[in-house]
Predict the structure.
Amino acid sequence: MTCKWLLVIALACGSVHAAPNQENEGAPLTQERLAEILHERGLGAHLQSMRHSVATSTSSLITTAMGMIGIPYRFGGTSPETGFDCSGFVRAIYHDAVGHLLPRQASEQAKATQKIDKKELQPGDLVFFNTMRRAFSHVGIYVGDGKFIHAPSKGKTVRVESMNTRYWAKRFNGARRVEVAATSHTDPIMNTAYTAP
């Protein structure tokens, strides 16, 4: 988790004010200093609990997606019973695993999610490709290690593929992070501010 997001979490959990320090004035907030502030304010254990919840949610998302390997592609498909197209697959996985309903089309999913750099990819992020001579015409879920899971095309099944193969690397269009708001007792899935239940 980046220092920026740790600070967001700290601010959401309570007021965090560091005592003025002449030698640190104007210096960037480091992860070490943030950890000290959280510990001083008694927020360290809460942050640890949130980290565990985020890991659990991400694991659930990837496990749910992997459970769909082998299900056939079907244009317009949105369920394991009927088969999936790429955006129907992503939408179903996010809905089933974390209760978050994404838009139906890949291009709409790109608009509804937070743009991130490829080097920031984490499991559960969305990866987009230009497979139909238009931006964001194909989508999958990043699973780590340069791989993603998706419903490829007619005659194929849900599978994991490397983003580094020539075909996918040439067509890579961008990466997005899904911001999932906390609902009831569900914590956010990835890098979002904590909302108390």
